[in-house]
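Question (not urgent): is this output format expected?
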Amino acid sequence: MNLKEFLKAIIPIKHIHCDHKNKVTVVVFEDDSKAICKCAKEDEYNEYSGICICIAKHVYGKSHLDKIINSKKKVIYNNDNKEEK
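Got this back:
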């Protein structure tokens, strides 16, 4: 089994709904659970990012994903200057 087949087996997606007007992505999985990603008003909507975030929420769970994101050092790039936070 290659990686693509493996990922399809562990993350079986039933339906993807991308709402450009409201900047919302909804991914429904085969077990009928769903993950929702809403884009901030000031941000540009991107289907790919929305789908990836929904999959990450499904795999890790929203609260665990928040812990992962908030616990790691972040590197901010601003005009070719790198700053760690």
